[in-house]
Design goal:
It comes from Lottia gigantea (Giant owl limpet). This protein has 264 residues and is an alpha/beta fold. 35% of the residues lie in helices and 11% in strands.
Length: 264
């Protein structure tokens, strides 16, 4: 589902902390406030918040941000605080989780306005129990994991043309997660190479299937980022595409044979 929603082998199933760490140092976003969890603890050093909203339009909230000396971020990459009322799998929210951005409620702005200054935002982390139960994840925990390293660092990923959400949108999310987005369909299998595809593109994937490249559905990213898990086993598309291709070839062969017998 994509309401403004961006709605194999068992050994490849890994939690964020289980795969090889990136060669670059762990990313710590200095622009965020000190939080309750030690691994989320940061110093702002006077840096003013750059805020975005997702799933809501809030002109009054924007005025509060500017009155307190903050500003509206133009991209999720420069954002320090993302405000929303519930979990929606938008580009901003998935990108925000991937970057370790604090995802908070509107109450932060109301209380900050009363105080005349930006308050510690760690007390306002979004809690959406229904969505967290639905997708089986903890938002706070996932953000904590994401602050340590990029989930898809070292991965090369191609998105086929008919995938929903569309490839350009998926590319934005993937880049926030540290993946290298491949513009063309890979023909040769490499380590940490994945193709995100769908039933409509099964014919495009035949060379990749033949070469043993992992092919998964878009949920590999949409749910994987929420959980901060690399889990190829749970979202395989290769087997489904292989069976569809086999059945199609079988039907064609049967029709040809039947037609040949009919001519006799």
């Amino acid at each position: 589902m994509f309401f403004q929603e961006v709605s194999a082998s068992a050994s490849k199933v890994s939690k964020k902390g289980d795969h090889q760490p990136p060669s670059t140092p762990s990313r710590k976003r200095l622009s965020q406030d000190i939080t309750a969890s030690p691994s989320l603890r940061r110093k702002s050093f006077g840096i003013k918040p750059k805020v975005m909203f997702t799933g809501v339009v809030d002109e009054q909230g924007e005025r509060i941000i500017k009155d307190l000396g903050g500003s509206m971020a133009e991209t999720i990459q420069e954002c320090t605080h993302l405000i929303t009322d519930k979990i929606r799998r938008t580009v901003k929210l998935l990108g925000g989780i991937s970057l370790g951005i604090q995802i908070i409620t509107r109450q932060w702005l109301d209380d900050s306005k009363q105080a005349g200054m930006f308050l510690d935002s760690s007390k306002y982390i979004l809690c959406d129990k229904a969505s967290e139960k639905q997708y089986k994840f903890s938002l706070r925990h996932s953000i904590e994991i994401a602050t340590q390293s990029s989930m898809l660092e070292g991965y090369k990923i191609h998105v086929t043309k008919s995938v929903k959400p569309p490839p350009q949108t998926m590319a934005e999310i993937l880049e926030c997660s540290g993946a290298q987005v491949l513009k063309s369909l890979p023909k040769k299998k490499e380590d940490n190479m994945v193709i995100i595809s769908c039933d409509e593109d099964k014919t495009l994937c035949q060379p990749a299937i033949s070469n043993g490249i992992d092919i998964v559905s878009s949920e590999f990213i949409l749910t994987g980022i929420l959980r901060q898990q690399i889990d190829i086993q749970s979202y395989p598309l290769l087997y489904k595409l292989f069976i569809s291709s086999f059945l199609l070839e079988f039907r064609l062969a049967f029709v040809k044979k039947f037609y040949f017998i009919y001519l006799l």
